[in-house]
Design a protein that fits this description.
The chain is α/β, with parallel strands linked by helices. The chain has twelve helices and 17 strands. Strands 1, 2, 3, 4, 5, 6, 7, 8, 9, 10, 11 and 12 form a twelve-stranded mixed β-sheet that branches. The protein has a five-stranded parallel β-sheet with strand order 15-14-16-13-17, sandwiched between helices. Helix 1 crosses helix 6. The structure holds threonylcarbamoyladenylate and magnesium ion.
């Protein structure tokens, strides 16, 4: 299959392809998505094949405004309206009761569905023109770092999907926060672009699913099925070092072998002579870290490093999402100093 690279002006072509049941890479403000018509079970099934994604991992439906919620969901609680008003369009996914018409391929057979209204205007224009909710996981091959540019998407999906729309680099850089509104109090299933602190400021109490903080118990079924897989991983094994910036830098400088890769804060970039250094951004700039994270992880794949060591950011604001992705990229190989 030849994968067309479309521009942000080609929204009509992208919408037509979606309506025909094709797979299209779409830009969002978080990461690029691998989109299909979310009302067409056969089209949605092709997503799992293209990504190599396990069938039990449900997809998020993307809509252009909160008015479409009723096309996807039923028994919508008041909190959904409040969150939509405050955070949409933006990096927040709500888990709600699904409508019967939503294909099982989208929800992996669950009676709930994740719904999000992305902030990228090109994305919303494509969905509106297609006039169907668009099911889309992140556009990486399963297990790999998520794509934050059209080039990343082409790297993983060239020859596997019909088209990619180039909407420029993603402005947020980590996936949406996922909050389950089918229970009370609401539960955060995945930290992401909207900080937990902001959700609590609006909703009051928000619990954090145990699978967010640690490795999911392999025997238990996590509430966001995607949380049980190793994820976001570069090719070389990654060791994550947690602590204060100067301590983690000193630890890595002392312990990381020659010629390995180091993912560090910009302030410490000169501390690792002889290593392949990639900057995650400023130590106290979580938004910048989020924006750079996946591109930085992918950058090591273009080198011959046999292992990667990374400084862990602080778990505040969007930093919580960055740490969550690094934990998973390391397969929970974490050292505290
Ligand atoms: O920012 C994002 O959310 C990106 C862009 C493309 O919108 N999408 C994304 O999708 O990250 P994906 O498929 O890579 O991650 C979706 C996560 C998975 O962990 C999945 O298990 C969880 O959402 N999920 C989806 N539907 C769910 C449901 N009904 N209940 C619980 N978890 C759900
Ligand atoms: Mg993903």
């Amino acid at each position: 299959m030849k994968t067309l690279l479309l521009t942000a002006g080609d929204t009509d072509t992208a919408a037509r392809l979606l309506r025909e049941g094709s797979l299209v890479g779409i830009p969002t403000e978080t990461v690029y998505g691998l989109g299909a018509d979310g009302t067409n079970g056969q089209a949605v099934e092709k997503i799992f094949k293209a990504k190599g994604r396990p069938q039990d991992n449900p997809l998020i439906l993307h809509i252009p405004d909160a008015g479409w919620l009723e096309r996807c969901c039923r028994d919508i609680p008041a909190e959904a309206g409040i969150l939509a008003e405050r955070f949409w369009p933006g990096p927040l996914t709500m888990i709600l009761k699904r409508r019967e018409e939503i294909p099982d391929a989208v929800t992996a057979g669950l009676d709930t569905v994740g719904v999000r209204c992305p902030a990228h205007p090109v994305c919303r224009e494509i969905i509106r023109a297609a006039d169907v909710p668009v099911a889309a996981p992140s556009g990486n091959l399963s297990g790999r770092p998520s794509p934050t540019t059209a080039a990343h998407m082409m790297r993983d999906m060239d020859g596997r999907i019909d088209a990619v729309v180039d909407g420029g680099p993603c402005q947020v850089g980590v996936e949406s926060s996922i909050v389950d509104l089918t229970c009370s109090p609401p539960v955060l299933l995945r930290p992401g672009g909207i900080p937990l602190e902001s959700l609590r400021a609006v909703l009051g109490e928000v619990l954090v699913d145990p699978a967010v903080e640690g490795q999911a118990d392999p025997g238990a079924a996590p509430r966001a099925p995607g949380m049980k897989y190793r994820h976001y991983a570069p090719r070389a094994p990654l060791t994550l070092v947690c602590g204060r910036g100067e301590d983690t830098a000193a630890y890595i400088a002392a312990h990381a072998p020659e010629k390995c890769g180091v993912l560090c804060f910009r302030e410490f970039a000169d501390c690792f002579p002889g290593r392949q250094v990639v900057s995650l951004g400023g130590e106290n700039e979580p938004e910048e870290q989020a924006r750079r994270l996946f591109d930085a992880l992918r950058a090591f794949d273009d080198t011959d490093v046999g292992e990667i060591w990374a400084q862990s950011p602080q778990e505040q604001g969007v930093g919580r999402a960055v740490v969550n992705r690094l934990n998973r990229a390391s397969g929970f190989h974490v050292i505290r100093v």
